[in-house]
Amino acid sequence: MDQDQPHHTGLEARIADAVTPTLEGMGYELVRVSIRGRDRPVVQIMADRAGGLPIGVEDCEAISVALGAVLDVADPIHGAWTLEISSAGIDRPLTRARDWERYAGHRARAELAVPLDGRKRFAGMVMGAEDGAGRLRLDDGSEVRLPLADLRRAQLVLTDELIAATAAKKH
């Protein structure tokens, strides 16, 4: 697994593979692809500027036009679907090893697709990443290594500290 890319499977992986070159060519990075709904699926693509800077509405519009064209040609979903482009936001998902490194010292929640020591859900302080795993210090002081390939989801918890750190990076 490429630790610089978010881990996707199935249709989400095919969409990620199709859109990543265009996104990178525009100066953005893929954070996550998510597909919701059945009758008219919504393809949500979350992106950041290369280097981790936040994106704005104008960025989302430009990405939407470019990736809409890519997906129309690739045609990964049969029938009608909706494309939604968004910023990762302050309480962003942690999908890549570098996200775990960048947000070390902030609180997060994570859920694994397969149990680790009998558990699937974890919460605690992000401690970084190494050897394909995100490290989390749990509230009891123990540390757990969560394999990035097994994450169903991991997301920062919105705290005053995270808001302050995000505001400081914008200046």
Q: TL;DR?
A:
With 171 residues, the chain is α+β, with helices and mostly antiparallel strands.
Can you walk me through this structure?
The chain is α+β, with helices and mostly antiparallel strands and 171 residues long. It has two domains: 78 residues, RimP-like superfamily, N-terminal (GMP Synthetase, Chain A, domain 3); 74 residues, SH3 type barrels. 30% of the residues lie in helices and 36% in strands. The protein is built from four helices and eight strands, in the order αββαβαβββββα. The strands form two sheets. It has a five-stranded antiparallel sheet. Strand 2, helix 2 and strand 3 form a beta-alpha-beta unit.
Can you lay out the helices and strands and say which pair or pack?
Blueprint: H1 10-25, E1 28-36, E2 42-49, H2 57-74, E3 82-87, H3 97-102, E4 107-116, E5 119-130, E6 133-138, E7 143-147, E8 151-156, H4 160-170
Parallel strand pairs: 2-3
Antiparallel strand pairs: 1-2, 4-5, 4-8, 5-6, 6-7
Helix pairs in contact: 1-2
Q: Which terms summarize this structure?
A:
171 residues, alpha+beta, GMP Synthetase, Chain A, domain 3, SH3 type barrels, five-stranded antiparallel sheet, 4 helices, 8 strands, globular
